[in-house]
């Protein structure tokens, strides 16, 4: 029983972190209808940078998010303005190929610059835990979860309480109507892409403590994040949160009762099972499309 | 002989010459194992890129994990060889079978929905295959991998047998791909890429097509896997399910020209050479990832169509073919009506003997969140009528169309067509029953030719129809006749997107006729069409109607509706508020209030003070 409780609690902690990582992806999809395959590479990039700061300066890896988040925001903005925006209006498959290419470029650069080996940031609290009753809360996971929830909260406030957020939501719902009331589609799109990338900044910093990584790890991550987004329904933020929690819990349960090596596989099986019943994902809606030319 | 060759398109001639050169190369230059090795890997990559092209080029569903099928084929052949002692080459076709099975199983889960789930699952499948191969040790020997025996032939032959094996496979793959492109199956795949919702509305069973397309794209890669395992004599999970292999496939097809027959092959040769060069000069795999990624980004940004289509477009620009875009002469002169009637007669079904109305809606309701677009609507369309559906914008007419054709499903109510409940059927099944529609804004497949657009619809779900030829033969001939009916036969070879808007509307009508429909739903046929084409359109509608085709028309052009249609149904706030012959509708006070307005109010019997309708 304690074992089950332990697995569930850990699952929720990890799920919260996954939720943060997937929220950026789903935000970008919701506004731009682009699947950013490079989101995993952004995560690994931020994680590598965090690791480097932790080694070089001794900054706490999770606190390093304060640095990596604006950096990734900037990188996302630049990437959108100079690369992704060039293929706006083309078939969706082109954006998949383009961001796939970007992911490879980042992977290749990391390979060349820092080398192809496993890394992990291990701050002093790395192996410590809080004890709540019979359940152990590993400090790294707990701090990561708190950071993730805080950032998700901020993201939510930005989207619901600020003019920028309303502009982003308006554009995601109806780009031409948004343009008519004075919301520049290009600027909003760049902002959304930058915000989505920024979430990979925090996510990457947290990742650097919790999971060993190397440049090619981004495949694992993007496939996990995309799995969450598909499970929840493309472009749905509540869907991404639910999907992330399901993934987190499925993973810790499998790791506890089966074996860690099967954890990812079990998650994919869950996705398949959900898609079998609900092809559009848990929260996915079918869009009205008869009016589009 | 030369006359025979002249009839063959130039690209096929070039391909034949290249094939001949490749066939004789090992014979005239047998002691060059290195270039032969590079070439046979290029053949292997070309097999994979050509196969990938079927699902990702023709149908437009990008797979980023296609190298999985090579690994599956390799493991299948290697495991059988390990346990039975049979040479892996002889069981290589089983690798193809396993690949097809995996594609069908996962495809039928993922491909039921439209859009992006597929791309994601392809990556997930590749990674999952790696996990399974690593952990299912009793079967795959885990990460230690499987070592196979050396080739049984004398080492004097070097890799020449592999050279011919892969070249032969490449030949088969290209022939297979060419055959698909010439069938209605291939046209359907391209239709899915261009506009999936529209494809479903013209009888293309999009789910089945995509699953079959995915399966077709996996077979030859699976077969090649067995040969590849034997060629390498060793395989392990990391090597067999490497994502870099998928990168090479995607890049090859993209560089050469996605969706073309020879593009992926050309691209594979180029990419293989670049890859080889990078290995020789550029060091390890880390720089290769960077290089391939950079090329991918650059190609997407600056050469999105790929080499072959770009070259072809440049050739066309230098050797333009004169085309005439207007069809004024034939419109103004008008085809004799009898000719149209004769032809229309041949395209309508008269097999239905069911009694009662052709289409009947009872209590149909559709809500979008809090908005009830269609609110318990009843509607009856009698056989042989031209029924009009008019009403203010937002009254639910188009939504009703979508519910009838299956683009959306109703929350409540029943839809009966020719005596059969259809409200739970897929859009394509409704198409097969004889229900066709046009769209408010035309939705032709813009990058296909006009003829292909008209060939694409499938009047039934039979396999024989699916595999019927689309380029020549009975189907193409029928499509040409239909184009003649709407007066656009001369445009058959044009790109559909280049036609004028009104002409596109007529092509869309011809497309629907290919379904042999009993009922055609026209969504604002007059919108954006000039008067002369409009006349042509009403003429065609009348002729078809005389030959037994029933119409349901949504239209705002009231004079046209009142002239053409009977009865007229008026829709407001999601339900019918009136229906009857046009004369009665014109004077119905309810209709005047809800929709027509005062302009149509009959002038008072005694007009005092000279007030006319507009002045009120």
Description:
Chain A is about 70% helix and about 5% strand. In chain A, β1 and β2 form a beta hairpin. The radius of gyration of chain A is 19 Å and the shape is globular. Chains A and B meet through α4, α9 and α11 of A and α5, α6, α13, α15 and α19 of B.
Oligomeric state of the chains? heterodimer
Q: Tell how many strands the DSSP assignment of chain A holds.
A: 2
Proportion of residues in β-strands of chain B: 5-15%
Strand arrangement in the largest pleated sheet of chain B? 8-9-10-5-11-12
Taken in chain order, the helices and strands of chain A follow as HHHHEEHHHHHHH
Mean pLDDT of chain B: 84
Proportion in β-strands of chain A: under 5%
Short description:
The complex is a heterodimer of chains A (293) and B (616). By secondary structure, chain A is mainly α.
Element layout with pairings:
The complex is a heterodimer of chains A (293) and B (616).
Chain A: H1 2-32, H2 39-56, H3 65-82, H4 92-114, E1 129-132, E2 135-138, H5 139-161, H6 163-173, H7 175-180, H8 185-210, H9 218-232, H10 237-257, H11 263-277
Antiparallel strand pairs in A: 1-2
Helix pairs in contact in A: 1-5, 1-8, 1-9, 1-10, 2-3, 2-4, 2-8, 2-9, 3-8, 5-6, 5-8, 6-8, 9-10, 9-11, 10-11
Chain B: H1 2-6, H2 10-28, H3 33-58, H4 67-84, H5 92-110, H6 117-135, H7 137-140, E1 146-147, H8 160-182, H9 184-194, H10 196-201, H11 206-232, E2 234-235, H12 237-240, H13 243-256, H14 263-281, H15 285-302, H16 307-318, H17 328-333, H18 337-346, E3 359-368, E4 371-381, E5 386-390, H19 397-405, E6 412-417, E7 420-421, H20 427-433, E8 435-437, H21 450-455, H22 463-466, H23 474-485, H24 501-513, E9 519-523, H25 531-546, E10 550-554, H26 558-564, E11 568-572, E12 575-580, H27 582-587, H28 589-596
Helix pairs in contact in B: 3-8, 3-9, 3-11, 3-13, 3-14, 4-5, 4-11, 5-11, 8-9, 8-11, 9-11, 13-14, 13-15, 18-25, 23-24
């Amino acid at each position: 029983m304690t074992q089950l409780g332990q697995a569930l609690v850990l699952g929720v902690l990890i799920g919260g972190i996954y939720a943060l990582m997937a929220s950026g992806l789903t935000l970008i999809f919701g506004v731009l209808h682009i699947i950013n395959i490079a989101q995993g590479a952004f995560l690994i990039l931020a994680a590598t940078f965090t690791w480097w700061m932790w080694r070089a300066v001794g900054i706490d890896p999770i606190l390093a998010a304060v640095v990596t988040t604006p950096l990734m925001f900037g990188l996302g903005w630049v990437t959108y303005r100079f690369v992704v925006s060039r293929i706006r209006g083309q078939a969706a498959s082109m954006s998949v190929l383009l961001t796939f290419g970007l992911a490879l470029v980042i992977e290749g650069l990391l390979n060349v610059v820092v080398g192809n080996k496993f890394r992990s940031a291990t701050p002093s609290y790395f192996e410590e835990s809080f004890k709540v009753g019979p359940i152990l809360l590993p400090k790294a996971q707990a701090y990561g979860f708190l950071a993730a929830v805080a950032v998700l909260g901020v993201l939510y406030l930005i989207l619901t309480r600020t003019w920028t957020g309303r502009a982003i939501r308006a554009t995601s719902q109806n780009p031409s109507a948004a343009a008519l009331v004075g919301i520049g589609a290009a600027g909003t799109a760049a902002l959304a892409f930058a915000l989505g990338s920024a979430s990979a900044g925090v996510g990457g910093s947290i990742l650097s403590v919790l999971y060993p990584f190397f440049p090619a790890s981004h495949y694992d991550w993007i496939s996990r994040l995309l799995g969450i987004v598909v499970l929840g329904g493309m472009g749905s933020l509540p869907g991404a949160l639910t999907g992330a929690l399901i993934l987190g819990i499925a993973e810790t349960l499998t790791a506890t009762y089966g074996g860690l090596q099967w954890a990812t596989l079990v998650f994919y099986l869950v996705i398949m099972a959900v898609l079998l019943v609900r092809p559009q994902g848990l929260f996915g809606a079918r869009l009205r499309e008869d009016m589009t030319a | 002989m030369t006359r025979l060759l002249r009839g063959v398109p130039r690209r096929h001639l070039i391909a034949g010459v290249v094939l001949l050169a490749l066939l004789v190369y090992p014979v005239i230059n047998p002691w060059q194992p290195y270039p032969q090795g590079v070439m046979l890997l290029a053949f292997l990559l070309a097999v994979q890129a050509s196969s990938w092209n079927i699902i990702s080029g023709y149908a437009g569903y990008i797979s980023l994990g296609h190298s999985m099928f090579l690994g599956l084929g390799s493991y299948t052949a290697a495991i059988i060889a390990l346990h039975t002692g049979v040479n892996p080459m002889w069981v290589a076709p089983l690798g193809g079978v396993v690949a097809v099975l995996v594609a069908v199983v996962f495809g039928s889960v993922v491909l039921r929905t439209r859009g992006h789930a597929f791309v994601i699952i392809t990556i997930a499948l590749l990674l999952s295959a790696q996990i399974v191969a690593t952990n299912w040790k009793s079967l795959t020997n885990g990460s230690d991998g499987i070592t196979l025996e050396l080739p049984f032939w004398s080492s004097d032959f070097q890799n020449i047998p592999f050279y011919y094996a892969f070249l032969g496979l490449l030949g088969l793959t290209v022939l297979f791909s060419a055959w698909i492109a010439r069938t209605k199956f291939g046209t359907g795949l391209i239709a899915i890429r261009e506009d999936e919702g529209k494809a479903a509305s013209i009888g293309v069973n999009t789910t089945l097509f995509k699953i079959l397309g995915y399966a077709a794209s996996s077979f030859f890669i699976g077969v090649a896997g067995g040969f590849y395992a034997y060629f390498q004599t060793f395989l392990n999970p990391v090597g067999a399910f490497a994502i870099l292999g998928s990168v090479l496939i995607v890049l090859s097809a993209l560089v050469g020209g996605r969706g073309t027959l020879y593009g992926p092959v050309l691209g594979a040769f180029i990419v293989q050479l670049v890859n080889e060069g990078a290995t020789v000069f550029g060091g390890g795999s880390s720089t290769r990832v960077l290089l391939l990624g950079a090329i991918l980004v650059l190609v997407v940004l600056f050469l999105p169509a790929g080499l072959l289509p770009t070259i072809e477009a440049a050739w066309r620009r230098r050797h333009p073919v004169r085309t005439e875009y207007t069809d004024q002469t034939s419109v103004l002169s008008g085809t004799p009506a009898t000719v149209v009637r004769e032809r229309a007669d041949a395209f309508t079904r008269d097999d239905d003997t069911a009694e009662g109305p052709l289409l009947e809606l009872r209590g149909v309701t559709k809500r979008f969140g809090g908005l009830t677009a269609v609110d318990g609507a009843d509607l009856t369309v009698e056989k042989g009528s031209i029924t009009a559906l008019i009403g203010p914008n937002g009254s639910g007419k188009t939504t009703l169309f979508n519910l009838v054709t299956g683009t959306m499903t109703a929350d409540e109510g029943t839809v009966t067509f020719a005596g059969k409940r259809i409200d739970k059927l897929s859009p394509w099944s409704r198409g097969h029953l004889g229900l066709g529609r046009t769209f408010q804004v035309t939705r032709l497949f813009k990058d296909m030719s006009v003829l292909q657009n008209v060939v694409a619809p499938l009047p039934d779900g039979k396999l024989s129809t699916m595999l019927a030829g689309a380029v020549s033969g009975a189907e193409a001939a029928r499509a040409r006749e239909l184009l003649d009916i709407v007066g656009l036969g001369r445009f058959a070879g044009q790109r559909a997107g280049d036609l004028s808007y009104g002409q596109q509307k007529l092509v869309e009508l011809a497309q629907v006729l290919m379904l042999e429909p009993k009922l055609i739903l026209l969504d604002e046929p007059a919108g954006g069409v000039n008067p002369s084409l409009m006349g042509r359109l009403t003429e065609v509608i009348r002729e078809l109607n005389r030959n037994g085709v029933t119409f349901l028309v949504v239209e705002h052009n009231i004079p046209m509706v009142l002239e053409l249609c009977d009865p007229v149904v008026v829709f407001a706030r999601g339900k019918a508020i009136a229906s009857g012959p046009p004369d009665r509708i014109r004077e119905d006070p309810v209709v005047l209030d809800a929709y027509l307005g005062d302009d149509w109010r009959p002038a008072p019997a005694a007009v005092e003070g000279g007030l006319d309708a507009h002045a009120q």
